[in-house]
Amino acid sequence: ALRALRAVLPALRAPARRPLPRTAGGAAGGAVGPGPELSARLLAALDPRLGEGMYAAWRGAAAAEPPLLRAVQALRVTAAPFGATAPLRSVTDDRGRVIRQTDWPLGESTLTMMRVVFDTSGRDPVRAEFQYTESGSSVQRSEQLPADTSFALGPGRVSLQAQAGQDLGLSRLVGRAEYSREPGVTARFGAALPEVTLGVSRPADDGRVEVTVHSGEPLVWRLSPGEHRQAAHGGFEVTVRYTGAGEPPNVEIGVATLPVRADRRVLSLDSVYDTIAVGSWVAIERPRKGAEGGVPGDPALALVTTRVTGVRTAAYTGFGITGRGSELTLADPWLDEHDVLLSTIRDAVVHTGGETLRLAGEPLGDEVHGHEIELAELYHGLAPGRQLLVSGERTDVPGTSGVYAAERAVIAAVEQYADPRLPGDHVHTRLTLTADLGYRYRRDTVRVQGNVVAATHGESRDEPIGSGDSSRPGQTFTLWQSPLTWLPAGNPLGALPVLEVRVDGLLWHETDSLAGRGPRDRVYATGTAGDGRTTVTFGDGVQGARLPTGHENIRARYRFGSGRAANVGAGRITQAVTRPLGVNAVTNPLPATGGADADGPGLTRRTVPLAVSALDRLVSVADYEDFARSRAGIGRAVAREVFDGRRTVLHLTVAGVDDVPIAEDSGMLAALRSALARYGDTRLPVRVAVRELVQLLLWARVKVAPDHSWAVVEPLLRQALLRRFGSGERELGVPARLSDVLATAHSVAGVEYVDVDVFTGVTAATAAARLAGAVEPSPRTDVAARLAAYREEVHRVTADGGESLTSVAARHGIPLAELLRLNPDITDTRPLAKGRAVSVFRGIRPAQLALLSPEVEEALVLTEAPS
């Protein structure tokens, strides 16, 4: 488990980059000129009628070419035409026996069929079968061949001739003398039947049959067994099929009337669908339409997409079945003149009942990093120089997910942008930052918050604190609330109270001391009463002006509240005491740092003499150290002259009061650096860093003296050790000694002896590696805490198979990017070979502070030794 933790530590330790202030030149490398945002502001200023409506319209306007895709629908209903699953029509003989099955005519079409059956040898015709089908009813007739007869068939008559020798009728039909020598069958249809003449020849030696259809013009086909033909001829749809296997050889000719054009737009569905309305989209799939060997006709009808112009619920009777379903009238035809049989639409699939889907923008798959952020929409009010907070899930932590972070950024430039290469792209805002983001974020988790203000702890009050009396010198008043809030400042003290005192509405100024002030100087001095409240003392008319007489004419505007309690974590501040107009919610994406309690007696005794040692003039190294230690919020400081690899610098290591964590970008450090530059030697390079913590680990067994209770001795011993090795007593660069542990333990009443099992220290860089390894066999005599020094640390690969760059970075607790920076000769990601030496640190390590932290309970483990 700790091995996995070591792999992610370098990424977690990577600090967020400090945003650079925007300069007049904008972002580095950025174009300078009147962009769309500036032009929009000028338009709004020149024409007040535009107002805020301009940005609302601009946000929804499409800057690119109109998209070809207007809408997307999900068709939720899948249906079939009525009759698609109907059984084939049965054909019976004279005795009513079913001899075969055939297809139904489609819609209002009529189907006239002739079937010539040959003998078993497939040479001579022996029977002719006729059938007329209309509106679901059919009439059949069968004649044995040869024959020369005429008979009624449905609404018309049929003249049948079948000859074994000369076929004069067919000869006259086709005008070919050579055909008259072949035997065959000729049928003429008349009256209300289709006026056509059908002819079927006797099979030739090659097995082919000649089929002739005459309806004004002859249509001749020569078919081999198994062939199928279909074509429109003379206003009819003609279908011919020559069957030579599986049943007696036969030739079947079907003549169907073409459907009415209006019927080609009517689609009868197999069931009732309430979700279909006028205007709904319909997509009809017919895979075989227009395909080779499929249904002849227009290939465009293989997929018809159209709208519904009419819809009703109808009852159907046809194809030998009955049913009830939705009858749709379409805007475009879905059938053509070739669709005369039910078989042409049996494979049709109807998609309808559409649900309109909202078109989403094309997602950007890359991560958010670098110095550019492309927002999803157009946002008004983002201006160069404005601060942002960028938060989201980090993607640069290897092997894990769910790590969230936030960092500050400053806008360098704002561009309202639309990509002309993306059809339908709308205008959105693109931000250029003054510096690259410190982390990489998953795009769909990123939040960019723009209403960013610096917030400090303390509640505001504006109230009268007393009445002035010109007859009384040196009047003193006490603020009602405490403690008074102090904020970092660049003065020698390092902080200023948030206090403003006005007398009769005129502002008076705070001074360190009234001594030396003139009788007209409107000044006051602050102090602290015994109960911790702040006092305000005015002059006596000689040293500082007296107060004028008035009733409650002295008002104080101040803030109260401070201390470590203000160091809350990220996302903990969610309620606003007051809500300005337009503010809906508040939060703190970053943790609060830098809060410290008031100096206790011990710290006060140490820092008060330091204030007069340097007298606000920094000359020696000790002056820098004393100056830093005397500042508010800083509990420890040590200064040294150190070589940084190029030159000698003055390095100052600081720690917060009670070792309160200090962020690198905190206002306290910024104020300290500013004060050092103001009061120190401008030619001396100064580096300020926060201490490196050495967490002490102390595990011991304690023998309790006779007549004493472990329940009483253990808390006393724990308090004594935490007091001796806690933040209140420890100094920077001072090692922790085992002898001090034993001496402290024996000073507690009831402790007979102490057997220390573990006494060591771990730093952030070595914690994972130290804890993953074996426990030291014996406690150390002392735990080192070094002073600031320049170091060059090298890692040598000892594993036989080499080591990866990631493992080396994890072992030493540094980001992979830092490892590559320190070793520019590493140009690829191959594992480092055994014996290879790489630099893992080059620079100044700050001074260390070794202490026992009460926040880590496992750091101090005390157990009772058995008797």
UniProtKB/TrEMBL annotation:
Positions of the LysM domain: 795-840
* Organism in which the protein naturally occurs: Streptomyces jumonjinensis
Q: What is this protein called?
A: Putative baseplate assembly protein
Could you list the residue ranges forming a coiled coil in this record? Answer: none
Q: Which domain of life is it from?
A: Bacteria
